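hey so i finally got around to running both of the ones u sent me last week. sorry it took forever, my laptop kept dying halfway thru and i had to restart like 3 times lol. anyway pasting them below in the order u listed, first the sequence line then the structure token line for each. didnt double check formatting much so if smth looks off just lmk and ill redo it

first one:
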Amino acid sequence: MKAFFLLIYEIYQFMVRFFKEAFIPPYEYKEVLNQFFEVGIRSLAIISLTGFITGLVFTKQSRSSLAEFGATSWLPSLMAIAIVRALAPLVTALIIAGKVGSNIGAELGSMKVTEQIEAMEVSSTNPFKFLVVSRILATTCIVPVLATYMALIGMLGAFVNVYNNEQTSFTSFFQQAFVRITFVDIAVLIVKSAVYGFTIGFAGCFNGYNADHGTVGVGRAANKAVVVSMFLIFVEEMLIVTLVNNYLR
């Protein structure tokens, strides 16, 4: 119990320090932009492939169920609701957690155990602002963009399947798809993705920044970053969905 409450206190201190450093100049603009590139641009390929396959496969699996009721015409709306409300932000967050979260944990963990962070402090550089704040800001801002992009790519995959079976035109498909999508759905997608992005960046930075025990600690930091962020993402998904269904609809 003592170790658990000590961990909670360390997380609290780490979060308070992040918000303090994030709003106090000087700002590390170049490093934030560099992390935008590392998190966003370098993830586009896997996000594109995963999004397209997700839309294509989910449409193919849903078709048989709707066909039993003669309701295949509902596929565009069903895909839009499923992808925008749930699949796009959740799948994007899980991909980024595995790809970026582990990388952040391993990178900062390696710098910690090799005393590079202490060297930055000696050279009058604020390592927390340079390493931690920039990465958390990058994941928080970029994950919503990637989730929105995945939603569009997923809808494109759904369109390919619908077109191959019903010959539905591109314009007709997207008109039917987004007739049930509201501003609340778009806002929830962005907010959920931002929360997931913050969770991924925070988990990766916290575990990497506090790594110890040499190279073994680096591996543990990377593993904890992925496991903890994925677990928290599912918890947050449940809480946000409950909140939206109970109070915003």
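and the second one:
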Amino acid sequence: MKMPLLLRSALLLALAGLALPLAAAPKPAEMLDPASLGFDPVRLKRLDAVIQDNVNRRLIAGGVMYIARDGRTAHLRAYGQQDIEVGTPMATNAIFRIASMSKAVTTVAVMMLYEEGKFMLHDPIEKYIPAFKNSVVAIPPPKGAAPGTKFGTEKAKRPIQIRDLLTHTAGLTYGDGPAVELYKEAKLYGWYFADKDEPLAAAIDRLGKLPLHGQPGEVYQYGYSTDVLGRLVEVVSGLPLDRFFAERIFGPLKMVDSCFFLPPEKEPRLAKVYGYENGKLGLGDQGDYVRGPRKCFSGGAGVLSTAGDYARLLQMLLNKGELDGVRLLSRKSVELMHQNHTGDKYRKDTTAFGLGFWVNQDLGYYGELGSEGAYGWGSAYFPQYLVDPKERIVALFMTQHRPSGGNDLNQKFKVLMYQALVK
């Protein structure tokens, strides 16, 4: 009996498929081969030992360490617990409040829209957010001022530019400065927005009417600049910031657990915040990320993410704007992002600040193990990340630790990572 042609073809294709090698399954974390990526496995144990010692001594509750080189995972491990009271061990897919590490996401969003011709980086922000027109700068009371005078004002020498916001030279703090009482009255003191029962537009319009605490372009002042950029993204894209992030960044990069407010069904994976205070570790403020108003999207400090998700954003930057066939930014935009944009105005972790993060341009000034050209930032909840183009490395340590009690583990992990790099 003659076999039908279609059936014969299908059978031949199936048999041929049996002869093809199966794609290798991803290796579990404990089976990774760091030596093939230039890391000494014995030296990496020093990193594990120091983090575990912090857990054992109850200096932190737990955390997740992630290192990748050339886009391949070299080290991924969870330590301690994400909920001490319940006894839930930390998991590598635990969800963390990343606070100021949100700024890198917002910067990417701004640069995407810049590439689409929506604005120039030297455009005045008042062109898109009119509340910032006619800004004044708060200054200490002049000599001879009437008793009780708290501060004076002077006219801003020029409007705030978008580039000023990207470099934290817009004159915006988190409220501290001569006009601090006005910021407190406006409910704009500190970085936390998750409890605000209002849209981002309302908060930023209110901010635009307050005195600045520095002349635009003249001084580095860390503060609300990135939240203003989040509102800029909304204005020029026509989308709320949460939708822009979800549709234009998180979705394309497959950052499946990154968001502003957590879906209730994912709450069991949210690591609890612990803090070290008065010589002991205890529960910290958990915030309003699950049951809060869910209205005000802080581009400066409001995102939640996992180590794996956030590493995908960093890998995209290391890859000069592309990841797994998805390109969010051009090579030239990423190149611009990690140049020194602040001259000698930023003298903190390093001597240079780019568009959204510190940049290490002087290893001698930095004074710790690292690479020239590396860049990174951290979070009020203690996580830190770095991207090292020279060594082709992405590294981040995720935890939820506030207040820190003076702990320096979020800086020390970088030294321990670099000392294990032997090739």
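quick thing i noticed on the 2nd:
The chain has a mean pLDDT of 93.
anyway thats it, ttyl
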